[in-house]
Design a protein that fits this description.
59% of the residues lie in helices and 0% in strands. The radius of gyration is 27 Å and the shape is elongated. The chain starts with a helix and ends with a helix.
Length: 296
Amino acid sequence: ERDLVQALYIAIFAIFGSLVRMLVAQFFGEECHNPGTVGWLASGSPLCVTSSGSVIEEGGIIFADLPSNMLGSFVMGFFASCATLKLAAVEGMNIPWLPPKHWFQKMTILHKGITTGLCGSLTTFSGWNSSMVVLLFGTGSNRPTHVINAIFGYIIGMEVAIGSYMAGKSLARRMYRSVNPILVNETDAIRARRAEGVWLNPKLPDFERRFLPDLDMGYNGEKDYGEVVVGYRLEYLTQWRESTKNARRIGNPNLPALIAIEKAILVDETVTVPMDAESIAHANGWNINALREWAR
């Protein structure tokens, strides 16, 4: 049932994206060589800055669908996930530029409709490629080829799409830093620890994800992991962290066992861990019982 609803959302947004693409293309180019095609716009109103490269024109490297490609690429970048942007996030957070508990975070079906349906139909790289092929090879004896124009058309088409996508991602990052200050501190701390060669597991619960790699997220020198924990309880997790500090380094041969243990106890919430991982824990003196006490 969920897959059916998802497909419906994608189809609706795809139809809307196609309509927007056609209107944008007409506004920026079609009306210039086919007056009256827009209907609700006077022929002198559109901004004639693009050319479709059709057979009746000399062609141009700035084609009619370029603005819609830019818009679709920008929206795709703006809706990039926290993982794509390499930003810290709490569980269930899909949109980086909104607070974690915002109602829109849970609308994953709507997110997919926007990114796959709307952006997928709003952008038309096949249309862009067709325009460039017309320029490159011509359309018969009455139209010469424009090789140089086609080459620059390919370059411009790629560059503006990538640039628009990066601009969308940049805006998302800026809004993220404004809306989620605690997660910004975590992101900066993660980068610092990774530069030191420390492994960080993004799949762990929020508190453990920050505490175990000893992220420096605090204000005025005081570390803040976003949760108040009774001292004697925190001692269990501290014992586990100290006993596994060396294994928490990128490239350590025992790191996969550490990841398996923490996944089983902290994520899957079971006291049973893989036997080979537990053997490695005992052999290296990891205080796995302290981790189990913490998770109780």
